[in-house]
Amino acid sequence: MTLEGLVASAIGIVTTVAVYLLLQPRAFATALGLTLLSYAVNLFIFVAGGLWIDAPPVLDAGRRLSTDPLPQALILTAIVIGFATTAYLLALAVRRFAVTGDERTHLTPKHTEDAR
Amino acid sequence: MLTLVIVLPLLLGTAACAWAGARLGRRATAALAAAVAALALGALLTQAAPIWAGGAVAEAAQWVPSLGLNWQLRADALSLFFATLILAIGLLVITYASYYLGPTDPPGKFYATLMLFMAAMLGIVLADNLLLLVVFWELTSLASFLLVGYWSEQSPARRGARQALIVTGVGGVVLAAGALLLGEIGGTHQISALVAHGKAIQNHPLFPWALVMVLFGALTKSAQFPFHFWLPDAMAAPTPVSAYLHSATMVKAGLFLLLRLHPLFAGSALFETVALPVGLATLTLGAVVAIFKHDLKGLLAYSTISHLGLIMTMIGLGTVEGVVVAVLHIFNHALFKAALFMSAGIVDHETGSRDLRHVNGMMRYLPWSGLFAIIAAAAMAGIPFFNGFLSKELFFTATLTAPHPLVPILATVAAAASVAYSFRFIHDTFFNGEPGPLPNPHPHEPAWGMRAPVALLAFLCLLFGVMPWLAEPLITRVAAAAAGAPVPELHLALWHHPGLHVAMSAVALAGGGIAYALLMTNRFLHRLDIDRLFGRRAGRWLFAALVARMVRTAAWITRRTETGSLTMIVALVWVSALALVHFTVPWPQTASTPAAPQPTFSTLLVAFPLWLLVAFSAGALLFWHAHRTVAVLLTGVIGLVSAVAFALLSAPDLAMTQIAVEVVSTVMLFLALSFLPKRTPAIPFQRRLVHAAIAVAAGVTVGVLAWWLLVTPRESISWYFLAEALPGGGGRNVVNVILVDFRGYDTFGEITVLGVAALGAWALFFGTSRAQHCTRQTSQWLEPHPHLLRVATTVMLPAALLLSVYLFLRGHNQPGGGFIAGLVTAAALLLVSLAHGFAAANQWVRAQDGWRFARTVGAGIAIAAATGAAAWAFGRPFLTSAHGHPQLPLLGELPLASAALFDLGVYVTVVGATLLLLTPLAAARRNDRETKENGR
Q1: CATH class assigned to A3-53+67-113
Q2: With B548 labelled, which of A112, B475, B731, B902 sits at a CA distance of 20 to 30 A?
Q3: Would you call A3 and B603 a contact, using CB atoms and an 8 Å cutoff?
Q4: Nearest CA to B299 among B351, B242, B365, B227?
C-alpha cells in the first residue's frame, strides 16, 4: 500500500459515510454529513497538488523543494466557509425544530398544502 | 462617430423619451425622439463620403476581450444603407405615430422602447463583431417584445408579443451558438476578418453546423417558413410598430445577416439547399395565404412574409446577381410596405376597423390616403412605373438561372398571388361598394402629419419606378459590399431586352387580376374563412401545442423530483453527478509514478495508523450515527486526522486552520444538539439499502478519482505563484500571499460570504428559545462550569490571544495569517465562554446578544474593502497591493505590506463571524433558562 493508495482510499471511505449521512432525512445527520463531506472534498482538492513530505510552500533559503501552494490557498478558505454554511444549516434546523417540533428534511403533506 | 450613432438613441433617446413622456405630452416626446434620430442620422452621414467612395469606416474599443466580445463597429456601403434606412424610416414612423397614438396611450413607453429598438437595430447593422451583433440581435427581440405588447392590457397583444419573443429568442440563442462556433473555426469574432477567409472556413469540418445554426437564427428572425407564424400574430402591435419592425427593419435583420456573411456562405451547397427552398416555400405560401386574409394588417403581414421569402430566394441563389436583386428589393419593399402599413393604420384609425369585409368604399372619405395607398400597392403588385416592378423583373430574370424549373414557375405563381392580394387590398378597402357596419361610421382624412410620411414614401415609390437609374449607384455599391466582390454593371431601366421574364410578368399580372376577379364574384372571398380551413395544422396551433407539451413535461418532471424531500434531491444530485463522471471522465489506461518525492518508510509508519483511525471512525459512524453525541465525537476524530494529514503533507497553514475550526465546530454541534433530539430515528431497511448503494458508489468513484489524480503527472499552474510571491507579493508564505494578494478578490468574496452566513444564522435565532418545543428538549449539558476549566482558561486566554497576534503578524512569511489567527482568537474566547458560562461571557465581552459581533463582521469587511479601495487613490485597480521591508531598531526587518491591512480585515471578520455564529445558540440557552425560571 503506497501513500497515494492510503490517502485516496481514506477519501473514498469518508465520502461514503458522508453521503450516507447526507441521505438521512434528519437535519442534524445532514449537517454531520456535510461536515464529513467537506473533509473529503478538501482532501480531494488537496491531493491535486500532489503529496509532498517536508516541503511546505514557505520560501526558505535552505529549502529547495516546495509543494503546490494553490490548492492549499483554496482549501484554507473552503474550510472556513464550510464551517459557516454548516453553522447556517444547523441554525435552520434548530429554528425549525424550535417552532414546529419537527426536524425532518422533507415536507409533510400539510406543508405542501400550505405552500399552495 | 459610429458609436455615437448607436449611443444617441440607446442612452439619450430612451432616457429623454421616458422622462418627457409623462411630463411634456405626446407631441413633445415625439419631437425629442425625432431630434435624437435626426442627430444620429446626421452623425452617420458625416461618415458617408469615404464609404460612398468604396471604403469603410471602423471603430474599436475593448469590452470583454477574454471572450472575444469587443465593441467593434464597421460601416461599409451595406451597413450604411441599412442604417440610413433604419433612421430615415424611423423618423417617418416617429412622426406618424405622434398622430396615431391615442390620448390614453403612454407616449414615454412607446418612444423610449422605439428608441431602444432603433439603437439595437443600428447595432446589428454596424457591428463588426459577431458576438456584439448577437447582443444587439437579442436586444431587438426584447424591444420588439415590448413594442408588440405595447397595449399590454389586450390579451392578443400579450400573446403575440410572447410568441414573437419565444420564436426569435430561440433563434437568437441558436445564432449565438453558431456565432461562437464560427469564431472558433475562424479564430476571430471580427466579421470583416471572418468574411475575408470565407473559403478556408467553408472547408472546416464544423462549418455545416455553424452554417445551420446561423441560418436558423436568420430564418426565425425574418419570419421564414416554417417559423413565419409569429409575424401575423405580432400584428397586435400598434400599426407604427408594424410599419417599422415588421416591414422595414427587424424582419430584415435575418436577411441582413445573410448578406453580411454572404462571402462566407456563398458557394456552399448546403446553404443553397436550405435557403433556396425555404425562401421559395415562404414566397409562395405567404402570397397565397395573403389573398384570403380578411384583416387588413393580416394581409400585409402575409404579404411581408412572401416578400421576405422572395429576398431569401435571391440570397439563396448564392450568386452576385442574386445579391443585387436582394438588395434592390429590400430597398423597394421597405418603401412600399411601410407606406401600406401606414395606410392600413390610417384606415384603422379613422374607421375603428381593419376588417376588409366591412371597410369598403373608403375612397370617398379618404381620397388622399387612398391615392397614396394605390401607388404603394401598385408597387407591391409589380406594375410598371412603380418601383416594385423593377425588382420583380430582375427577380424573374434571376430565377431563370436557377438550377430547377420549379423556381421560375413558383415565382410566377407567387407574383400572380401578389397581384391578387394587392388588388384586394385596394379594391376591398377603397372601392367595392359601401362601407359595412363600422365602429366609427364617419371617417375623414387624418391630420397631414399622419399622411405626409405615407405621401413621401409613395412619392419615392413613383420616383424610383419612373427613373430607376437613380438607384443604380446605391444598389451597386451596397451589393458589392455584401458580396465582397465587384458587381457586374447594373442597368436599371423601365424596358429591358425582351425575354421570358417579360412573359412571366404578363402572366402574373393577368393571372392575378383574373384570379381576384373570380374569387370576388358575389363576394365569395368574404365568406371564406382560411383559419378554419387550416385549423389545427396552422403554425400557430402547432406552436401552442408544442409549448403546452413542454410545460406539461416540465411540470411532470418537477412533480417527480421536487417532492419536498431533501433526501430525494441529494440522491438525485449524487446519482446524476456520478453518472456524469462515469460517462465523461477519460479514465486512464496506465498509471505512472508521480512527480513528488517518494515517502520514506517512517512516513508510512505514521500514515497507516492514521488511516486505520479514519477507517474505524467511519465504520463506527455508520453503525452508531443514530447516537448523535457519539457521532459528533467520531466526526471530530476524522476532522483531527485530516488536520494531522495536512501537517504531515507540507500544509502547516491548513493543519492550523483545520484544528481551530474543529474546536469551534465541535462546540457548535454540541450546542445545537442541546436543542435537538439526541437520537436519529432509524429508517426502513430497504431505503437504507438504496442509500448505502448510492453512498458506496459515491465513495468508490471519489476514491478512484483521487487515486487517479495522484498517480497522473500533470502540469501545475502554481509555479508562477511560487516564483512571484516574494518579488510580487512581498511575502514568503506563498499560501498567505495568494490569499491576501494574488487572489485577494476571491478572499474578499469569501469573507463576505462568511459574514452573510453568520448574520443569517444569527437572525434565525431571534426568539428561538421562546418556542415551547425547545424547553422540553433542552438538556442540562454545559450547565455546570468546572472550576478547573475556569482557572485554566483564565491563564490560557492571554496566551491564546498573544499566540493569535503572533500568528497574524508572521502570517505573510511563516504559516499563519488572518484566517488562522481569527479562528484561534475565536476558539479561545469560546473556551472562556464554556468555562464561565455563556451568560457571564456574554456580559463580559458586552456581546449584546450578538449585536456587537455583527458590527465586528461589518468592520472587518469594511477594513478589507477600504484597503482594496485605497489602491484607487494610486490609480491602480481594486486590491492592488504594495509592500516594503523597512529596517527598524529592535524589531529588525519589518515586512510592511498593504496586504497585511487586508489580512487584518480578514482576521476581524473571522473573529466576528465565528462568535456571531455561536452567540445566538448560547443566548437562546440563556433565555431558555430564564423562561424556565419564570415558569417556576
Answers
A1: mainly alpha
A2: A112
A3: yes
A4: B242
